[in-house]
Design brief:
- By secondary structure, the protein is an alpha/beta fold.
- Helices cover 43% and strands 14% of the residues.
- A six-stranded mixed beta sheet has the order 2-1-3-4-5-6, with helices on both faces.
């Protein structure tokens, strides 16, 4: 449920007190990415809050490079974002590298949020706060549907929404009050 995941991620950052939040994603041509963006926009709308349009960046670069180069650009803005929500964990790792290059401390100077909960997320420094997708369950459902098709079983067109969950780790905190 990418909509719910986007909503949970943005809600987490807003609940921490962030108001200048960058969002990095792939083009909305990917349905999952579009659902995540709709979810985070819903969380903003529920709080009657809007992000500046130039803080929402979508592009087709390789994911790490997209996170890295976009973060360098976002972090040069004034006022600088206090948080970045990268809509994949690989993009979030790129953001973390850009922050390190700029000598920003996570989460003191910048909170970083990812999406997917890839294994690397728990081992990054600091560990990455992310939206976990049930990867194993997604694989099981895909194999089940593929086997139904291969074996000629009646395969109905259906959508199965699997739950996402917020995994809070060390890369997010309330913004510093300067």
């Amino acid at each position: 449920d990418n909509f719910r995941g986007g909503h949970m991620g943005m809600s987490h950052l807003l609940d921490l007190g962030h108001r200048i939040i960058g969002v990095i994603g792939a083009p909305d041509t990917r349905e999952a990415m579009a659902d995540s963006v709709r979810g985070l926009q819903q969380a903003l709308s529920e709080r009657a809050f809007e992000l500046a349009p130039d803080l929402i960046v979508r592009g087709a670069l390789q994911q790490f490079e997209m996170g890295y180069s976009t973060a360098l650009s976002l972090l040069s803005k004034r006022p600088r974002p206090t948080a970045i929500f990268a809509l994949t964990d690989v993009m979030a790792v790129g953001v973390m590298h850009a922050a390190a290059q700029l000598k920003l401390r996570l989460p003191d100077d910048l909170s970083v949020m990812g999406f997917d909960d890839i294994p690397l997320a728990a081992y990054s420094i600091p560990s990455l706060t992310t939206i976990a997708q049930p990867i194993s369950e997604m694989g099981e459902v895909a194999v089940e549907l593929m086997l139904d098709q291969l074996l000629g079983r009646e395969a109905s067109a259906e959508t199965r929404r699997l739950n996402t969950r917020l995994v809070v780790r060390g890369s997010t905190a309330s913004p510093r009050q300067d």
